[in-house]
Design brief:
InterPro entries: DNA/RNA_pol_sf, RT_dom. By secondary structure, the protein is mainly α. The chain has 10 helices and 2 strands, in the order ααααααββαααα. It is globular and about 65 Å long.
Length: 226
Amino acid sequence: MQLLLDANFHRSESWGAGEGPNGPPHRPTARSWEVAKDVVKPGMVAWAIDTFGPFKSLGTDGIFSALLQKVKDLLIGPLVRVFRTSIACKYIQLEWRTAKVVFIRKAGRVQHIIVKDFRPISLTSFVLKTLEKVVDRYLRDRIPQTSPLHTNQHAYRTGYSTESALHAAVAKIEARLEKGGYAVGIFMDIEGAFNHTPPEVACREALDRGIASPLVDWMDELLRNR
């Protein structure tokens, strides 16, 4: 189990029950409240709740997504206030930081005896997932306006996928061959790219792309202390 944790959760630390980083919230500023209100809107919270499958595996808090959906109209107001406070204070509740991790066997493997034969599924609170979806939607809508992504980036973009990346590559190769030329390609596979990306790198990129610093600080808190 420790090998699986070390391989999939880079720079993680072991804590006992009830332990872990849980410092006090930061004192919010007028600017942080302004950003929080810009990110978290009632309509976006309602949209995020509706995107969940009703009976997906739940996190450690025992709250099903179906419960949020059934009483959505009653919860929108309180959730908006809680989410805005979380961002403004750059604080993630300890209960939200707790996840249940299940390691499942990768398909297509003859046997499952090494750590690479398994992949982790982290089951977190649907309340936190709702806020994450709201922030994700905000970033997807904001970044193309403040700092457009490169035309050749096929990840994290609506309407793009591995299929569109392959199509673009094949089209360039075919075009060269049809003209009697040749094509040289370099293919790189970065092992554990997401698992091993330091939070400071992701946050620096967000700042460079025009994302407000209070939101980036909240993202940093979420990435480091969960």
